[in-house]
Specification:
membrane; mainly alpha; globular; Glcn_transporter; gluconate transmembrane transporter activity; transmembrane helix
Length: 444
């Protein structure tokens, strides 16, 4: 490990990233196999024995799955229950009543921000696409404005806030405090979401306002939960995790109430409490679908976990190169601070399309560099994760599956999507990174 030269380290890193981009973006190879092959290629460039490469890959895969597997599965299941019970529809209707139909693009942006907390952005957009079309029809606002406003609200929290898989995995790899990442990420996502809406409104007004016919939803008012029962499964876990972080951080001895809070605020326990609250909102007629939800949650989480495991394997190989030790004395790199995690993640995201793959890969690259970047402190690790979250927003275009979900479910042309939504994600990433920088001035 100590005999790996700087040239080998950089060559292995660049070759691994290039292979990931080529396999996922050009040949549409599943990200897990791309990450696995990238780790193998980097290991060969580092001139590691094949047995060492295999052992390192298995260790890296197992460690990241062990630390994050339960959290990802529970978070995925919570989102599916909220979809199944109609809680997302209830929250959407409530926000719309507060803002009014005349502000329907802003309402959709807020709805996306709220609903996107527990639900993946692509699932959230599909669930809310009927409401999106109905509002476009009622308000006469261009569909590209409506769709982009909703999409950016969902996208902001997806990139910035655990328990979404990418930033959750990055938090685990960087070993940052989950509660504070969640709280700061939620706050930073707010201006990013609003700026995405503002750009959508500005750019979309130059395009023809083509609104589709209203669509009927699958739910009926008598089967939907109340607003309170819809918001509790989202609000309670976030509150518990945040309170645990702030009240128990750095304390060696805890009173009984704080011990209970420390237990309840553990992310896995908090999300389990959210699942229990979501189940209370289920009607008896929906009970038959519970087993199906659990099966779907496990299956959907499995697809995410293999990508996260692949990222852990790739990161473990990169750690063998000792890149951090090689460049620790290079002021041109160490002087970039939180800018380097942002740039690396943004390049990966733009090149290969997946925010999750981009931030997991970036976390593997940046982790050994934390001391050299001056980000090895608890606050520094949080800022590093948030900077990577901001980078994972830039730039969503034709190689991003979410781009096509928006286009397909809204009936939008690619050229209109690129002019409005894609540029909106660029604006969002820059705004989010500015917020991270301002936060760094306050806490470092």
């Amino acid at each position: 490990m100590n005999n790996i030269s700087l040239l080998q380290s950089i060559s292995g890193l660049l070759a691994g990233i290039a292979l990931i981009v080529i396999l996922t973006a050009r040949f549409r190879i599943h990200a897990f196999f791309a990450l696995l092959l990238a780790g193998l290629l980097a290991g060969l460039i580092f001139q590691l024995p094949l047995t060492d490469i295999l052992t390192t890959i298995k260790t890296g895969f197992g460690q990241i799955i062990g630390s994050l597997g339960l959290l990802i599965i529970l978070g995925t299941t919570l989102g599916l229950i909220l979809e199944h019970t109609g809680s997302t529809t209830v929250l959407a209707a409530y926000v719309l009543r507060q803002t009014g139909t005349g502000r329907s693009p802003l309402a959709l942006n807020i709805i996306g921000y709220v609903v996107g907390m527990p639900i993946f952005c692509d699932s959230g957009f599909i669930v809310l696409s009927g409401l999106n079309k109905a509002l476009a029809w009622r308000s006469g606002v261009s569909m590209v404005i409506m769709a982009s406003s909703l999409a950016t609200g969902l996208y902001a929290v997806h990139c910035m806030m655990p328990p979404h898989p990418g930033i959750t995995a990055a938090t685990g790899v960087i070993q940052a405090d989950m509660g504070r990442v969640m709280l700061y990420g939620l706050l930073i996502a707010l201006p990013a979401s609003f700026c995405g809406y503002a750009w959508s409104l500005y750019a979309g007004r130059r395009l023809p306002a083509v609104a589709p016919a209203a669509m009927e939803t699958d739910t009926t008012p008598d089967t939907l939960p109340s607003v309170r029962m819809s918001v509790l499964p989202i609000a309670v876990p976030i509150l518990l995790i945040a309170l645990r972080s702030f009240f128990t951080l750095g304390q060696t001895t805890l009173s009984l109430p704080l011990q209970l809070l420390n237990l309840a605020g553990t992310p896995e326990i908090a999300i389990t409490i959210g699942i229990a609250l979501a189940l209370l909102g289920m009607r008896k007629s929906q009970g038959d679908g519970f087993r199906k939800i659990l099966q779907e949650g496990a299956e959907k989480a499995a697809g995410i976990l293999v990508i996260i495991g692949g990222g852990g394997a790739f990161g473990a190989i990169l750690a063998k190169a000792g890149i951090g030790a090689h460049i620790a004395g290079n002021p041109a790199i160490t002087g970039t601070g939180i800018l380097l995690p942002f740039i690396v993640t943004a390049i990966l995201k733009t090149a290969q399309g997946s925010s999750t793959v981009a931030i997991i890969t970036a976390a593997s690259i940046i982790h050994p560099l934390l001391p050299a970047l001056g980000l090895h402190t608890p606050d520094g690790s949080i800022l590093c994760v948030l900077a990577m979250g901001a980078g994972s927003m830039m730039v969503s275009h034709t190689n991003d599956a979410y781009f096509w979900v928006i286009s397909r479910f809204s009936g939008l042309e690619v050229k209109d999507m690129l002019r409005v939504y894609t540029i909106a994600t660029l604006v969002m990433g820059i705004v989010a990174m500015l917020c991270v920088y301002l936060l760094s001035r306050l806490i470092l």
